[in-house]
Design brief:
heterotrimer, A mainly alpha, B mainly alpha, C alpha+beta, C: six-stranded mixed β-sheet, five-stranded antiparallel β-sheet, about 25% helix, about 35% strand
Chain lengths: ~300, ~300, ~350
């Protein structure tokens, strides 16, 4: 994962009360032109990729005349059938699950603990969660290579990627959980739960987690998107995850590889769309955690 | 599990209750910090130690002893070219991202048909800002690669891109590709700042005799400045540290992150290891500076948003 | 020659009519409050004067000049907004001199005027501070100084006290009035708080649904409300079911009350009689409506009695000066002084 970007959470998202709300609805050419241009800029690469992926025409011949030729899913189905793909996908999914579990298992209690018992540590922890930015994935993996000889037993396993993926996802998973916790009255919930006789475990599972559903789901989705797209570490450490496989596949099956890339894109977009829908339950406003998440960029590399 | 969720109606007498439920006495040293141990240990093990190892290796001279030689080497010759090139294209890419992203944010914030359009743009930006690496690289290969769809269109119009020096390893090429996630990213961080521009400021400006231009010059842009500058730094850091997208598009040795990967790939003479790690160290240092400045600017911007 | 005049102003927002046929003349040096509930159009009226809204028809004149089509930044008005209008990136000084800079005053002159203004609002010590370092009340005082620095012809205040704490509200309110009279500046003050309006205005314009219901001095508006709406909005009213009897009287629960307000209604018509609590009295047995004391609240200078009147099954509020030696449950009789009552159809 190279350029993983985290945008420190955007709180205070207020529905806009900017100027033209009451002073007449004029159609302004400027802003709409910008929107149009950007819309096209973002659409075209996707369309181009669709052509490469879905048209059974040699790339060299793709042009105006061949615009509607031979569109089919055969390239994709072939790629999906490839054994290497199956293995790579399986590994990526396992890594995703593992990362989500480890992330939640480590960060949720920590975030709760910080809010509950060590509020003064908040600034410190916030700083720590920004560190993975300062140490980009490529530099991180350089460090991994240094210590590799000493921990070969650990790094031999593909699953050793999991803790590093947790680190990569750290900035925004922690923030999203943190934002979720801050929207609760944590102290009161815990006190009430404990006063009713629940131990810490029960308090966690029955009082806190249900109220943090949004933040937890958001974290999980984002982590998944990150893991499914992570390329840097997997590449340098020579693992066969979905992204690395796709890149290698390009050499043997160009059309198929484009198909896989397209699928990855669609899947990631769907994940985010689902996420938006799930977290926008309350009215029409965008929830803080969602924006914090939408505002963080995970470099799917 | 559909157990009833405990919801809190009405407040218990917080102070007394919590005192009786939490640790019975406040010990002199706050042992609560121990609760952070798992997290801190994890972080140390998987982030700090690799990072320190990088620095450790880079502070080795060719003969293995301690020295700053390698750090210096990492800034000489081809390495230096790489750093300058990378800093240059990152800065330009960031600049493009800032301008277009801010404009887009302004458009989204003030465009008519507010609610659904703005939400759509924001959601899409959330996705687009995430794109990177393989899918994005492939998409641009399809669009602007040697056989790209757009390349052919432009050639047909009489202008051969690649003859004129275009390529994914050139500054224009990298700017184009990186803008795909830089612009949405800038939009997402600028949108709240633009929302924070209160209507009453514009009106007060008009009331006091100022024109639109006066407003932007004396209030609007100054207030947005920390966000814009912060955005620039963030985009710069983003572009500078990107690896996967570039790796899938080109094998240029002028991009620092790719260069680092080559070193790690082992096609390197013995004794040059330290130089490779120095590259990584310098990368980290540059990132630290950029992110540090970003942090400071963000705090400044937040303060004004709240007032 | 009035300082600010609205002539038949009409303003709509899509299907909603915000202002309908508004006619209002503010005399030079006068402070008029526009009072009314949310959505009555008072803020719209203010913004039309400021130039932030364009009216559909009608004219706005300042002195002799028709400014209806003049853009906002060319009108010479000072405006104080409800909240958060100070430019955050400028100091107090920078804010106050803003209007002077746009008008091209030189540095020395700006400095002098700013000093004057800050002294007027008693914030000279805060000259170098920023908005986020000050309290809400202080911010509004700076906003006032900023608006006045340009020596505007008209001062417009859009609910300037609504966002402040109660205590600060009263002190600042009096200060605004003090400054306004001192400078003799024509002022339009928008508020939904009737106490505020009653406290500082030369005249009050009570608005409802885009129309000016009544324009008069605080006393007039309170003692002689022109409509049931005004009667209810300014101060509180008892609502007693009654029926018209003859020309100038109504029958309330069997008792006759003389009131000129009934003259518009035909004999026998069912109406609601609106009477102020202080126009109701506890009278001797045999001369009023019997009822039971439901509550007795001593307020220092007066006592408020809640009386459930038998015949009407209505809980009436009766203001009595000083202490009332009555307890809940006691039987009393209530008399009504109808001279200032207002009538409204029963439906």
């Amino acid at each position: 994962m190279s350029h993983m970007v985290n945008v420190p959470p955007i709180e205070n998202v207020v529905p806009p009360k900017t100027g033209p709300s009451r002073t007449g609805r004029r159609f302004r050419i400027g802003p709409n032109l910008v929107l149009l241009f950007c819309f096209l800029f973002f659409l075209f690469p996707l369309l181009a990729m669709a052509r490469f992926a879905l048209q059974n025409v040699p790339v060299v011949l793709l042009g105006w005349s061949t615009l509607f030729d031979k569109w089919s899913f055969s390239g994709i189905t072939k790629a999906l059938g490839d054994e290497g793909f199956r293995d790579a996908l399986t590994l990526s999914i396992k890594l995703a699950i593992g990362t989500v579990v480890l992330t939640l298992g480590l960060l949720l209690p920590t975030a709760i603990w910080v809010h509950l018992r060590v509020p003064r540590a908040r600034a410190f922890i916030e700083f720590l969660t920004v560190l993975p930015y300062v140490i980009p994935a490529i530099a991180l993996v350089a460090g991994i290579k240094v210590i590799q000889p000493h921990v070969r037993w650990f790094l031999n396993s593909d699953y050793s990627l999991i803790p590093f993926y947790v680190i990569l996802a750290l900035p925004f998973t922690y923030r999203s959980l943190d934002a979720g916790i801050r929207s609760l009255d944590l102290r009161t919930l815990v006190d009430a739960s404990r006063s009713l006789g629940a131990g810490w475990g029960a308090t966690l599972t029955r009082a806190l987690v249900p109220n943090l559903r949004t933040a937890i789901i958001s974290s999980a989705f984002l982590t998944t998107a990150v893991v499914l797209g992570e390329y840097t570490i997997a590449n340098v450490l020579l693992r066969d995850t979905l992204p690395t496989f796709t890149q290698v596949f390009r050499a043997s099956e160009p059309q198929g590889s484009f198909g896989l890339a397209l699928l990855t894109l669609v899947a990631t977009t769907a994940l985010f769309a689902l996420l938006s829908v799930l977290t926008r339950k309350r009215g029409g406003t965008i929830d803080t955690p969602v924006v914090a998440i939408a505002a963080t960029a995970t470099d799917a590399s | 599990m559909t157990d009833a969720v405990i919801s809190v109606e009405g407040r218990t007498d917080g102070a007394a209750l919590s005192a009786s439920l939490t640790t019975p006495s406040r010990p002199p040293r706050n042992w609560a910090w121990l609760g952070l141990l798992p997290f801190l240990a994890f972080l140390t093990l998987f982030l700090i130690i690799p990072a320190i190892s990088v620095f450790q290796e880079s502070l080795k001279s060719p003969d293995g002893s301690f020295g700053f030689d390698s750090m210096g080497q990492a800034f000489k010759g081809q390495n230096r070219d790489a750093f300058f090139f990378s800093i240059r294209f990152s800065a330009y890419a960031a600049a493009v991202g800032v301008v277009l992203g801010a404009l887009l944010a302004y458009a989204a914030a003030t465009a008519m048909r507010p609610r659904w359009l703005r939400n759509l743009v924001t959601s899409f930006s959330g996705v687009a800002a995430n794109l990177g690496g393989i899918p994005l690289a492939f998409a641009f290969l399809a669009l602007l690669g040697k056989q790209g769809v757009l390349t052919k269109i432009i050639t047909a119009a009489g202008f051969d891109l690649y003859d004129h020096g275009f390529g994914f390893d050139t500054v224009p090429g990298l700017i184009t590709v990186y803008s795909y996630f830089n612009i949405p990213l800038m939009l997402l961080i600028t949108l709240p700042a633009i929302d924070g521009l209160k209507v009453s400021w514009r009106e007060a400006n008009a009331n006091l005799g100022g024109t639109n231009w006066t407003y932007w010059r004396r209030v609007g842009l100054p207030v947005l400045a920390p966000s814009l500058l912060g955005g620039f730094l963030l985009l710069f850091a983003n572009s500078f540290s990107a690896y996967a997208t570039a790796a899938a598009l080109t094998d240029s040795s002028r991009i620092v992150s790719l260069r680092l990967a080559f070193f790690l790939g082992g096609d390197v003479n013995a004794g040059e290891d330290a130089v490779g790690f120095s590259l990584a160290s310098w990368m980290i240092i540059i990132m630290a500076i950029a992110m540090g400045l970003y942090w400071v600017l963000r705090k400044r911007a937040e303060r004004w948003q709240e007032s | 020659m009035s300082a600010l005049t609205y002539s038949t102003i009409r303003k709509t927002f899509g299907p909603t009519v915000a202002l309908e046929g508004l006619n209002l003349s503010v005399q030079p040096g006068e402070l008029i409050s526009l009072l009314g509930p949310s959505g009555c159009g008072k803020t719209t009226a203010l913004r039309v004067a400021a130039g932030f809204e364009k009216c559909d028809s009608g004219t706005v004149t300042v002195g002799e000049r028709d400014i209806t089509h003049l853009p906002a930044h060319k009108r010479n008005m000072g405006m104080v907004f409800q909240s958060y209008s100070l430019f955050p990136n400028l100091t107090v000084e920078g804010n106050v001199e803003y209007g002077l800079r746009t008008r091209g005053f030189d540095k020395a002159e700006r400095h002098r005027r700013v000093g004057e203004m800050l002294e007027l609002v008693q914030l000279t010590a805060m000259a170098k501070r920023y908005a986020h370092q000050m309290s809400g009340g202080q911010q509004q005082r700076v906003a006032l100084a900023r608006a006045l620095a340009i020596q505007p012809e008209v001062l417009l205040l859009d609910e300037p006290l609504s966002a402040l704490d109660a205590k600060v509200r009263t002190t600042l309110r009096d200060e605004i009035r003090r400054i306004q009279t001192e400078l003799g500046i024509t002022t339009l003050f928008v508020t939904h708080d009737q106490e505020e309006a009653l406290g500082i205005s030369d005249r009050i314009g009570v608005m409802s649904n885009g129309r000016l219901e009544q324009l008069g001095t605080p006393r007039e508006v309170y003692r002689h409300p022109a409509s049931a709406f005004v009667a209810r909005f300014v101060g509180s009213m008892n609502e007693l079911p009654a029926s018209v009897v003859g020309n100038h009287a109504v029958r309330v629960g069997g008792m006759a009350v003389a009131t000129s307000a009934a003259s518009v209604y035909p004999d026998g018509h069912d109406i609601k009689l609106l009477v102020r609590p202080e126009d109701m009295r506890i009278v001797d047995a045999g001369s009023g409506l019997p009822g039971t004391i439901a509550s007795c609240t001593f307020q220092g200078a007066s006592t408020v009695l809640g009386v459930r009147i038998d015949a009407l099954d209505v809980l009436a509020s009766v203001h009595v000066a000083g202490v009332a030696d009555l307890t809940p449950g006691e039987r009393v009789e209530v008399g009504i002084d109808g001279t200032r009552a207002v009538c409204e159809p029963a439906a």
